[in-house]
Every structure is written in C-alpha cells, then in structure tokens.
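#random but structural
TW: two for the price of one
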Amino acid sequence: MSTLLENHEGPLPTRAGQVFPGQRAVFGGLDLHQAFTHSDWLEVYLYGISGKRLSQAQLNVLQSMWVYTSYPDARLWCNRIGALTGSTRGTGAQALAAGIVASEAGLYGFGPETAIADFLVRAMEASRNGADLDALVRAELARHRHLMGFGRPVAAAFVDERIPVTLAKLEHEGIAAGPYVKLAFDIEAALARVTGKRLPMTYATMLVAVPLDFGLTARQSYLYLLPSFVAGMLPCYVEALERPAGATFAMRCERIAYDGVAARDWT
C-alpha cells in the first residue's frame, strides 16, 4: 500500500481538465470557452464522459430520450423521494441527489439498464462469431432466471410507450436503427420463442441500445443515463413544498396491511 501511495504522490495527472483562473478552462484537452461556445450542455456532458463529439442528430436523439422518460409522477420511486424531501422541507439538492441515488435500484432503476447493456455487448460479440441467439438467451435465463430489459412489470403485455416515439425520433433525424437496436428486437423475438411468452422490451433496453449504437461503451451509456429522470423529480419536490409540511403521502398506521412479527410488550 505504501508503494502504491508513493507512486501516486505529487501532482495529479489528469485528462479531465484544469482551470487557469483569469485565463481559461481546459475540458478534456479542449478550451471550454472556445471549443464549446455554441454547444448544448448535453454535448459537453457526453464529451466529458466519452471524449466523443457526437453529431447534432445523435445529440437530438439522446436528449429526446431524456425527455421521453421525464415522468413527474410522485408515485415513482425517485420522484417519491423528491416529494418526501419537499414534505420534510429538505433542500432541492437533497431531493435531487437522493432521487438520483435511488435511480440506481437493481430491480427497477438503472440496474436493468446496466444488466441489459452488458448482455447486449456480449450477445453482439457472440452473434458476430456465429453463436445462436436462442441458445444465448437460454443460457442467460439459466444464469439469471429472467432477462433484464424485457417484460415490463406494470404493463408486461404492452409495448413501452416510449419506444415508438424514440424510433420515430431516429427516423426524423435521419438515423437508421443501428445493430444494437436491431439486436434488441431480435432478442425480444428469441425470448418469445424460448419462453413461449410475449415479453416486449422495456425502455431500459432502448436507453442503452441507442447510445451503444452511437459508439458509447456500456459504462458510458450508464453515465449518460444518470440525469435522465431529473426533470420528473423536481416538479414533485416543488409541489410537496406547496403543501403543508408532512402532508405528502400522509397515511395512518392502521391503513398499513402488516403480517409480520406480532406486537411485543416492551415493559
């Protein structure tokens, strides 16, 4: 451990950037105020993640995907946290930070996106090497019992409403469906053949397939996703601030159906 620390002692080498107060700011090797003068925030954000300058059409699609999943419904897990933070008079930063952290939930947050991105990358490589897709799906189901990104718990039999508008946006921007998007639909078909059930892909799959097609890695796709629920969180926080403190999701204890350990005598 001491050798490791000794090897890294001293000035911090970085590719991220550096500020020269009163002169300039370097962002990923570029002058922030010159190279990004007319850039959207998303372009800067993605460049910081990946070092890539995506086309305007690609940026338009990725930004629209954030828009399409901005649901200001306080019943949704991350929005509920934002609303409860407002109800307890926490700060906006607390609401936003806690909501983003909750977005990483393994079952219903960015867990599925991370898992399906990993599988898409592995399945793409295996398919290009001649592997049978049905066999890949069977092997994945044997390992995990279900395939993340397919079968929406709240509306399992229906097409995710955000997928058609995303495909339409790709077409509008003159971008053909890429190999990962096509693979996602192929996996959906293979899953139906293997299980005998209709398990349509969820938006989690589209949210990673598109950035993968744009040249981002699985990790970079995950980082791209992190702010995607933000626009839906803060309206719930603001609305809770407009109610009396403690009045959001108020519920009597007797309304909770409980079948756990019986009441204990603490005396």
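TW: number two ↓
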Amino acid sequence: MEDVALAGRNARVRVRGNGEPRLVPLNALVARALRDYLPTHPAIPRLENLFLSQRGQALSIRSIQRLVDAAARAAGLPKVSAQSLRHTCAKNMLAETRDAGVVARWLGCRDRRTLEKYLR
C-alpha cells in the first residue's frame, strides 16, 4: 500500500522484486481505477499488499497469472498471458522512447541485453 502514489498528475507505483526497486508511471485510467479500488480495500493488520485474495492474503504470482488468463479467455483472446502483456508493453515502450536503458530500468532488467528477448 505504501508503494502507491496517486496524488496529482504523476501517479506512480514502486515495484519491488528482482533487482532494484523502481518507480513505474501509471496512466490516468489505471490511476482512476486504483482510486476507486482503494476505499474498498480491507484493512488487515500486518498485511500491506495492494491486491488480496478472497482469504485476505497477498496474491501469489500464479494467482495473478490465473486472473489474467481468465480475463483473456473471457475477452476471446486465447494467446494473451501476463508474460505476453509484459512483452507487448516493453515493445511499445521501446518503440515510443527508443531508449533501451529507460525500458530496461522500468522493467527491472539488470542488464540492457535482457531486452533482446522483447525485440524478437
């Protein structure tokens, strides 16, 4: 919860995981959706995750993958996955910025050469 900053026009979220934590910008649609969601977020002591399972626990990576898979199937997009969304985002950002260093940092890649898999 502390990693979400929705104030003003520069909504961002701090992503932690592999590599250095990084700030990821959020577009207006995502920022609005989070603003709508936050008042419904249950207050569970000692658990500060933004998205929770039905049991009030942090969502696992596999749970997120299943949610994306289900949404893709419901939309009639059988080849869409969490990973394909990441690849598409990276390709689009690279095409727009033409700056592999920025895209690598945004994705949390330790090495710019890792971006090569997004260029194929």
